[in-house]
Amino acid sequence: MKRIIFALVLGLVFSIRVFAEDVFEIPVMGKSIHIFDQSAGEKKPWYINDHCIIKGPDGRYHVFGITHEKALIPPSWSEHTFAHASADELFQIPWQKHPRVLDVDKNLGETHLWAPHIIEKDGTYYMFYAGGGKPWDSMINLATSKDLFKWERSLSNPMFRDFFDARDPMVIKFGQEYLMYYCKTYSRKDYRSTVAIRRSKDLIHWSEPEFALVLSDKPLLINSGHTESPYVFEHNGKFYLAVCTPFYHYRLTRVFVSDNPYRFDERNEVTSFIAHCAEILNFDGKWYLSHAGWFYDGVYLAPITWIKAKKFEPQFIFVNAGETEDFLVERSKTVKIGSVPLSILTTNAFLKILTGGFARYEIPVPTEANQLQLFISGKGAYEIFLKDEKLSLSRDQTSFEGLDLYWLDDKSKWSDGKLELRVKPAGNNSSYDLNFLRIYFIN
User: Fold this and answer.
1) Residue ranges per structural domain of the chain
2) Cα gap 278→300, rounded to integer Å
3) Nearest residue to 434 (alpha-carbon basis) of 299, 335, 329
4) Alpha-carbon distance values, 193 to 94, 218, 396 (Å)
5) How far, in Å, CA of 433 to CA of 331, rounded?
6) What residues pair up with 442 in beta bridges, in sequence order?
7) What is the model's pTM?
8) Could you count the other beta carbons within 10 Å of the beta carbon of residue 64?
9) What would the CATH number be for the domain defined by 316-442?
10) How far apart are CA 3 and CA 8, in angstroms?
11) Range 23-310: architecture per CATH
12) In 10 A of CB 244, how many CB atoms?
């Protein structure tokens, strides 16, 4: 199911460079604060999923997002309206809840309202969103407002249609044009997950799609499930693309870097966030990350800091436990391959480590790397050792239901070019299902 990610040579020719320089910076997510809960005043709990935050003409911050009552099986196809709240300060608690905006318009062929994204132009706020339609004929639509409270759909809707399952639009201005990013499959027969890009001069007329990112992750998903919620942002001359990959873990967001906003290479993945549908925001020169989702209690906000990094080859290692034995050098007899069905078509493979068992990995690491980010995903309680030293969670990095982040900064532990990790269940009469390890190299 999962595979080590290899370089993919795209069948496109670009004259622009893709991350040619050696030194850049990576964004680091701080501690999250719960800023808004759509459940306030409702009879039952509600969630917010894909969302956006923008500063309005009233000087207040506004959040808009997918919303619905919580359910055992999230009813994504019944998400028919957007939540709206505002606050004077980003970390104000609570934000002021407003009436929901827009409702699905079946006369236009809309089947749902997903993933609003707003950009301001000449005093008008343009909200792009996924309006649904037929699976192979999905709409990206537009509504506009002067005050962020009263919205009118564009008479030019849909902006365009694209195939399965075109959604999660976001827009930036670059030079004299606007760039829209959204997720979709590569073609009707090639189900690689991609981030598509279209260009516009006026936010109304859009070019045919190109590809900003194409991932070779397996399994191939008909719904572009490896590149959800794309978000592009610029920092110190570099462009970063964040995509949510819930297939590996619901709160795994991966970040890629490039010298330009048109093309990102999967080899240039430089970090991850423990966040779903992350929005990376810059207000008054300060950086933030907002996140939400089906299994959240609303919208969360975290500060972002930046640390210097260096381009390595490769930039990271993906250890695909249960699907491959790459880098696995020793395991006890109580370790076996396991799997659990995720749907009718797919299963999630893992390495099941039974009571008293362990799995030991030796992972190649550039000796000049000063720090490592280690993400581990699995089910159950576990202990992880770097050589003979038990690791502990550090900094303000959060954990969430089987996804943890460790910072490793004692480079003497990999001075021989090998990172030796041993994973075992914690406690008696327990087991641990190891899903994956992701290691990023930082200098």
Assistant:
1) 23-310, 316-442
2) 10
3) 335
4) 37, 9, 31
5) 14
6) 371
7) 0.93
8) 28
9) 2.60.120.1620
10) 13
11) 5 Propeller (2.115)
12) 29
